[in-house]
Amino acid sequence: MSFRGRGDAAMQRCRLISASKFVIFMFAFFCEKGTADLHADGEALLQFLNGLDATARNLSWSNSTSPCYWHGVECTPQLDNVVAIKLPGRGLYGTIKEGTVGSLPRLQILSLRLNHLSGPLPRDLLNCTGLRKVFLQGNDIVGSIPPFSMTSNPELAVIDLSFNKLSGSIPSSLSSLPHLKILFLQNNTISGSIPSSLGSISQFNVSNNNLNGTIPSSLRSFSNSSFSGNVGLCGPPLSSACPNTTTVPSSPSSNPSIPPPGRHTPSVYHSQAKRQLSTSVIVLIVIADVAFLFLMSACCMFWIQRRNAAIPEQGKEKEGKVSKEKGFPKGARDTDDSKEGYGSAQEPDRNKLVFFHGGYLTFDLEDLLRASAEVLGKGTFGTSYKAVLEDGPTVVVKRLKEASVSRKEFEQHMDVSGNMRHRNLVPMRAYYYSKEEKLLVHEYLPLGSLSTAIHGRNESGEAALDWQSRLRIAAAAARGLEYLHNSSSKCVHGDIKPSNILLHRDFDACISDYGLAPLFWAAANNVAAIANRMVVGYRAPEVAKTRKLTQKSDVYSFGVVLLELLTGKAPAQTSAEQGMDLPKWVQSVVREEWTSEVFDRALTKFNNIEEEMVQLLQISLACVSSSPDQRPDISEVLKMIRDIRNENDLNEDVRSPITTTHSSSPQEQSLRDSPAAAYTVIQVPAAQDMEVQQQAQGSPIVKDEELPGASPSATTREGRLASSSPGDSTSEVNTGHVSPITTVAEGADSAKRN
Ligand SMILES: Nc1ncnc2c1ncn2[C@@H]1O[C@H](COP(=O)(O)OP(=O)(O)OP(=O)(O)O)[C@@H](O)[C@H]1O
Asked: Which intervals carry biased composition (Low complexity) (predicted)?
């Protein structure tokens, strides 16, 4: 190699070394920068935590680990910056200080909704240029709304500051936000007027504030409920017309040459006419106008006074009904709470689910509203929905109807029922109380109810339940009822029937709706009306007279359930076919010594069970004695059932409480893999399921209904519990997406495939 050649090679090596050094340097620089950024973010978050009350310490954020692994914190894919803080419903108290979340340069999502945060919003949120979604609803935040704008936060798409204590006006800078889709400011004390344009907004609510002025025409497509509760607001969609617009005659008002009405007095406005009229005529007209106005206001005041004096209570009730019809509460102020003596102390808990057993960690009210929902059925006290929560459990939400129960009564009831834990009771997860809406949230049991199991048939027309399964269910339900009766509060169930006995793996059974009937019963002004709504065939005869639900009336109902297990007939069926209720029919057949005639034909194929069937029949007949005193206690009933078969056969060896259903699919999968899989296969499809049950109970068949708050297009059997609640997931806002749900029919189909 020549000298020159060697020199070139050396030069090349030098270049290569310099290039690689540069790459390494840049890499190190960026790594260090990334680490430094993340470190700064971590510091800001710890500062935020410092501004909160001590209970927030259980978030266990510590700078010994990367903030990207802290609970409720999300980072960029490169793990170099914090992009989201999601701590909804964590019971956080305190203020969000300047220099904390507002100094996270790449923050996109701030979700601290449903906490107890107070103080003003930090202005440095205006430095978060990537901010897309702000969920701070349901706190106690004061002060004014930061002037988010195109220059400070160009990406902002969702602002939910509803249910706080914000004041000041709505910043006009919000008009400049190009991506703003959702603006929820309801239930604050915001004043002033609404900015005339708000970009391409698709969900909007400013109800229950102190706003005034005309509703801008760009927002008139939103419904009345988006604006109601602002005394000073006027114009469509509200029924209160704006004073200036009413005086403007319709034809000239559209003429752009006419000056804007608000800036001119009527006399100027009618200047043409004025020139032609004499002064005395004008004076007369003015006097007549004033007199007319005076007369109208006097009439109005008189009418209002009369109405208030005569029917105050009725008025309140009507108010409640009106908002109830609107569906899920989306901003209605719960004004009557304070009247019940639940004033400011309860204020922070409004619009929050109250959880039992620490369940609040899993989901909150908004998740529920967002969940896709399927009507499971309509019962005596309301409609039940299966709600599949995004990344959360599948739950059943019972929306109580006409529940004129005071908050106090309701909460007392919940304190008792919500804290009951037994393997044979459907676990209650949470409840929600407001004047308009009362919700109960239970764990979802995918195997359906005893009603479906008794009356459903498989493809070859055979009954779903064999004899051993029926005995197991009887024992399990008796165990659940015994727990209720023997609890310290000596509960009465009040509505024992097969649709309130839900099946679990291995034909274990859980009782649902415990204590609901007595709650309604006690609160009802008209007990007879409630009694009539309840399914008659299971109600003890004395209840109609005494109007009291007792443990002995529960035993009677349980006896009817046992008879239904034995005969395969529902009370409504014997009433229709034999003209008498189920206990009377069984008693008459037994009296005539045709005992074997009463048993379900589907059971005849099982050998050596007649003796056991007769034993269970005797127990059932004791339970349905017409005299309450002659009925055994539920503990005795359970003992007698246990005497029929040994513990193992009755599935009594399993002591663990039932597990939480975190999502429908793995649970349903494990059920399909279980020995009870055969049952899953012969489940009737959902629609049929409801009909079978309602026919069995003798109630009118409930067809699919539109879900509260769900758009009619959201489908008949599925939808959301509320359509307008924004999501704070990283997915795009307002997709209107209804996630697919697995119907019971689909479940059964896939079970077949398995
Ligand atoms: N936790 C649950 N898991 C699965 N299904 C449920 C659950 N709770 C209720 N269901 C089913 O939903 C349907 C409707 O129940 P709901 O309790 O609203 O009415 P009901 O039991 O028919 O009457 P009632 O209101 O008088 O108790 C029933 O088929 C019931 O078995």
From this structure: 244-256
